[in-house]
């Protein structure tokens, strides 16, 4: 597994690599994670169950694999556009990177469509395998909820892509229309200042709590305090955060972007266009007050059956085995050129 994103940093990709690697180890494979150094964390490190990580990352890993005759499988967790300069350059690089890649894995069908278009590759070379959640770490606890208030939770990096400008526009009208609603926001980033300004301007210090940066082990403790979780992202290939929230028994309100509509059953999520209109939030609050929501433990059991890392590992193993047995056309072509 080669990635710039791995522990001790926290995030969806980091968690994906760790959990998938643990399940592949459980299935009898040897797994090594190649990532870059973090401060004094360099050299080889051994993690749980003998998962080995070392710090000599090169972005050109797939190019090196090609020159060494190794099979390469690319997993894409991102969505990119096609119009701005950054996307054009990134897509061109992806096109070159995947030219000799044996197969690609995407976390949603929307992500697959995006990758196929960006990299101009054959759709048959791309499989869809979703993310998953360790539901033993995300269990409901209704006793942690406030009895007299409805708590809306946001756990996210406070950056533009995660829709923090949108969230800043939603908070004042929601608080104005619903006096018993409060917000708990976990996470940090450059857009925190905007949320602080909104809280100051509208005098919402007693109703909007900014927790700052959270360790992943603390996310569940924040989620279980909530009744509703808001995801305001402007782009998402999958969004593991809404799965974690649903596993903790929260009703999810999310922007209808990227692969999000594929992730949760309709009765566990309210989808809205990315705007400052609050109809979906109002509906979620109304349903919560009138008891028209899925009970927390029922939601947890459903999520536990939908997304498991063992299932992800089994499906990933099928892709690895299939590609491992197929001829390496790139190596064959090079050998033919050498022989000629």
TrEMBL record:
Glycosyl transferase family domain location: 145-285
Signal peptide: none
Keyword tags: Glycosyltransferase, GPI-anchor biosynthesis, Transferase
Keyword Transferase in annotation: yes
Superkingdom of the source species: Eukaryota
Pfam families (UniProt xref): Glyco_transf_4, Glycos_transf_1, PIGA
Root EC class: transferase
Biological processes, Gene Ontology terms: GPI anchor biosynthetic process
Protein name: phosphatidylinositol N-acetylglucosaminyltransferase
């Amino acid at each position: 597994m080669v990635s710039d994103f791995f522990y001790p940093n926290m995030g969806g990709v980091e968690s994906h690599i760790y959990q998938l690697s643990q399940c592949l180890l459980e299935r009898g494979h040897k797994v090594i994670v190649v990532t870059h150094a973090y401060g004094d964390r360099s050299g080889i490190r051994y993690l749980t169950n003998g998962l080995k990580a070392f710090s000599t990352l090169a972005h050109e890993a797939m190019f090196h694999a090609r020159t060494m005759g190794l099979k390469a499988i690319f997993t894409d967790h991102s969505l990119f556009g096609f119009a701005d300069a950054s996307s054009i350059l990134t897509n061109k690089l992806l096109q070159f990177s995947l030219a000799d890649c044996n197969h690609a894995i995407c976390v949603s069908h929307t992500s697959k469509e995006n990758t196929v278009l960006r990299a101009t590759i054959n759709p048959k070379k791309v499989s869809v395998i979703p993310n998953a959640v360790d539901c033993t770490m995300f269990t409901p606890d209704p006793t942690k909820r406030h009895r007299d208030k409805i708590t809306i939770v946001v756990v996210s990096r406070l950056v533009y892509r995660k829709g923090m400008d949108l969230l800043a526009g939603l908070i004042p009208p929601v608080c104005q229309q619903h006096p018993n609603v409060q917000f708990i926001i976990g996470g940090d980033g450059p857009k925190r200042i905007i949320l602080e300004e909104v809280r100051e301007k509208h005098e919402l210090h007693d109703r909007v709590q900014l927790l700052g940066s959270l360790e992943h082990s603390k996310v569940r403790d924040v989620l279980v305090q909530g009744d509703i979780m808001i995801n305001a992202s402007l782009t998402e290939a999958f969004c593991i955060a809404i799965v974690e929230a649903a596993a903790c028994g929260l009703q999810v309100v999310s922007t209808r972007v990227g692969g999000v509509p594929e992730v949760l059953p309709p009765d566990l999520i309210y989808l809205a266009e990315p705007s400052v209109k609050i109809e979906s939030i109002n509906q979620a609050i109304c349903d919560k007050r009138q008891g028209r929501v899925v009970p927390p433990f029922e939601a947890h059991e459903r999520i536990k059956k939908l997304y498991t890392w063992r299932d992800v590992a089994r499906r990933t193993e099928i892709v690895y085995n299939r590609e491992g047995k197929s001829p390496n056309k790139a190596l064959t072509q090079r050998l033919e050129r050498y022989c000629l």
